[in-house]
Amino acid sequence: MKIFVGNLAAAATEADLETLARQVAEPVAVSLASGHGFIEMASAADAEALIAKANGTEIQGQAVKLSPARPEMRVPGKSGAGWQGIGGKGVPGSGQQRVKGNSKGKGGFNQAKGSSNKV
Questions:
Q1: Any bridge partners for residue 68, and if so which?
Q2: How far apart are CA 15 and CA 56, in angstroms?
Q3: What is the CATH number of the domain that holds 52?
Q4: What is the DSSP string of 10-47?
Q5: Are 68 and 6 in contact (CB under 8 A)?
Q6: For residue 117, what pLDDT is reported?
Q7: How far is it, in rounded angstroms, from Cα 62 to Cα 38?
Q8: Euclidean distance between CA atoms 6 and 29, whole angstroms
């Protein structure tokens, strides 16, 4: 089970998270990002014990907040799928599609070279 570690000091290291986790059991994995990190424990029981024991512990002079990690959320368009994904044309449900035109179109916002509409 993965644990979210919030309120980490900028000076915190992966070794700090490993030391924190070892209060209960050997961690499976640890990772850091700016201001937060994750500790993965082998079992839900180990994760719950670590949260109960170490929540509020100081790392690099700052009290950390431990909680169960939330599942990753997929954001449309960020992974290559979603609205603009495989074969996607436009926003779903809008009824609008992009249509390829030729260079002799009849104006509009994107007047092509050779358009018969002169301003």
A1: 3
A2: 18
A3: 3.30.70.330
A4: TT--HHHHHHHHTTTS--SEEEEETTEEEEE-SSHHHH
A5: no
A6: 57
A7: 16
A8: 16
**What's the domain range around 26?**
2-68
CA dihedral 62, 68, 73, 79 (to 10 degrees): 70
90: its two tokens: 């436009």
End-to-end CA distance of the chain: 65
Q: Write the pLDDT tens digit of every residue in 46-100.
A: 999 999 999 999 999 999 999 999 988 877 766 555 544 455 555 555 555 555 5
- DSSP 8-class letter at 115: -
Q: Which amino acid is at 5?
A: V
Q: Report how many domains make up the chain.
A: 1
- Provide CB contacts within 8 A for 72, sequence distance 6+: none
